[in-house]
Amino acid sequence: MTLSAEERNAIINNRIEKSRQALYAAKCNIEMQLWTTAANRLYYAAYNMASALLVKNNHTAHTLLALSGY
Known about the structure:
mainly alpha
């Protein structure tokens, strides 16, 4: 499926915003010393930003399992 430039920008902006929200939540959790939850939020901040970059650069992510044919 090919996305229009407008659709791609909407997806990119949405994922960047989700990343920013997760980063803010991580900072709040760190202040409360909720380390596991903070780590989870940091993971999702990185995940959403990486996802935005993949869309921006017209790349598709695949899991190793998907590539191995399972």
